[in-house]
Amino acid sequence: MSESGGALLAVAGVLALGAMSPGASFILVARLAATRSRAAGLAAAVGMGLGCAVFALLALCGLQALLERVPALHRVLSVAGGAYLLWLAWRMWQRDPADEGVAASALEGGTRGAFVLGLLTQLGNPQTALVFASMFAALLPPVRAATDYLVLPALAFTIDALWFALVACALSAPLPQRWWLRARRPLDRCSAALMAGLGTRLLLRAP
Q1: How many domains does the chain have?
Q2: How many beta carbons lie within 10 A of that of residue 51, not counting itself?
Q3: What global pTM score does this model have?
Q4: What pLDDT is recorded for position 176?
Q5: Is residue 8 part of a domain?
Q6: What is the pLDDT of residues 18-34, one digit of tens each?
Q7: Which DSSP string do the residues of 50-113 spell out, in sequence order?
Q8: What is the rounded distance in angstroms from the CA atom of residue 121 to the CA atom of residue 74?
Q9: Which residues of the chain, if any, have pLDDT below 50?
Q10: I need a surface site. Which of 130, 145, 163, 174 has the fewest CB within 10 A?
Q11: At 10, which helix (H) or strand (E)?
């Protein structure tokens, strides 16, 4: 295997581990798939993948250097992302189980609304771009090839979208859906608490 091929394989492995780690993205996709439909979960998965690709491209273009030179920009992005996650948590917490769910009331439009929710949730954590920048610096050659600006974002999109598509397909099956809907109130409260914790953590880590 060539050096570049080995580097891409290493990046793919780290991306897969990052996608599988529990977080706001998993909570949102799981909830949409279990309480609304498989199509909503898959649309959110595509939105997650697109957000991941955007961060990969920004990392390649030097976003880390920009945020280090302009700390106020990093602070604004972190506060905005944390506030967005706290807003989602609040909507989940107050939602009545008889209603359609947070996504339907927050953004109408069926799968389009789920896609936008997935994209915004992924983009709500600017720390992801810094993680990408650090990963690329550690695993890739210092000189970027022109193809990297296409291949790496595409790789990030594919891995993230595929993982969350699997989550959506698994939790939209009849048995997991019935189980989720029977325990919806405590699961909603638990999801809201986790989302609020992630949003608060992002706010506290704002430089």
Answers
A1: 1
A2: 24
A3: 0.77
A4: 81
A5: no
A6: 888 778 888 889 888 88
A7: HHHHHHHHHHHTTHHHHHHH-HHHHHHHHHHHHHHHHHHHHHHHH--TTS--HHHHHS-STHHH
A8: 17
A9: 1, 97-108
A10: 174
A11: helix 3-20
Does 81 fall in a domain?
yes
Calculate the alpha carbon distances from 112 to 2, 42, 46, 55, 103 in Å: 41, 11, 11, 21, 10
Q: Would you say residue 174 lies in a domain?
A: yes
The domain containing residue 153 runs over which residues?
A: 23-204
| Tokens encoding 152 | 């790496």
| Distance separating alpha carbons of residues 179 and 181, to the nearest angstrom | 6
The CA-CA-CA angle for residues 46, 48, 53, to 5°, reads 95
Residues 6+ apart with CB under 8 A from 155: 8, 11, 12, 15, 56
